[in-house]
Every structure is written in structure tokens, then in C-alpha cells.
Amino acid sequence: MYRFFPTVQKFLLHTGIIRHDGSKRNFHIGWLAPGKSLDGLKQHLREKWGFGNHFIAWTYDEQVLSWRKLVSFQNQYHISVFADGEICGHYEFTPEAHPIEHLEEKGEREAKAEFIQFLGDFVTIDRYISFLPIDLNPFNSEPEITFDYKKQTEENQKKFNEPR
Prior knowledge:
alpha+beta; 30% helix
């Protein structure tokens, strides 16, 4: 799917079947806290919460980070950080499970409380402007996070069989 998704996405955009506004920033969470770095945030999100690069996600103007945390094959948390330090994020369908709905941004919902927990002291609700460099080659970042269906099925089966 990863091989074909960008081509399909470009075709759907070009034909007008779907639209994408690269300037919008939905689901504001806060700002990168003073004294915190983008590299530190990335390390925190990867090591503590299992976030990682998702190269097929929509890109937005001045976006410096676009990562996801898979919850299941069906759903994910998606976080975006912008050059001015603004952090946005939402809960949504994965493009693997629901490609058209994902492209149309159906099923997206606010998840500020969850992101506040994920971000910890890396986020402030007070407006704090940063000047973060834009990565001109985002494909050279950390490896893609994928969903291990077999492992998740085994974990779910164990939970299901546990005495209540």
C-alpha cells in the first residue's frame, strides 16, 4: 500500500475528488515549552509512547514534525509540530484501514487530554513562539512505524482470556 498511496493521493487531489488545505492547523494542543527542543520531544515521544514517522500523512505549511502512534490497525493518534512551536494533534482512522475516509479526514476527533499526557513537560498552554528548522527531506527521518497485527492479536487474546 505504501508504494501506491502517494500516487493515489496525488491523483485524487489533482482530479478534485478530495481537497487538502495545506495552511490549516486543526486541533491545537499547545506550544513547545521554553527550554525544550524538537529533538528532545521526538526522543520522548518515540521512547516513552511509541510515536514514529508516518511519511504518507498530509503535510502542512511550516510543519517540522508529523508522527503517529498506532492504537490498532484501525486507529491512531497523529501529532504535528510547526516551525513556530505550535503543537496540534488528533485521533483518527489509519490510512491503512480506511484510506478514503482518512484522505477525506472523516473520523478525526479532538484528543487534547491524551496529547497533554503524551507530551508531559514538553508542552505549555501559554503561547510561546519557537523558531524550529523545517526538515526539507522528511523521508530521511526515523523508520516508519507499522502495526504488527499478529502481535496485537496475541496481546488482545491474552487480555480477553484473563480472569475478570
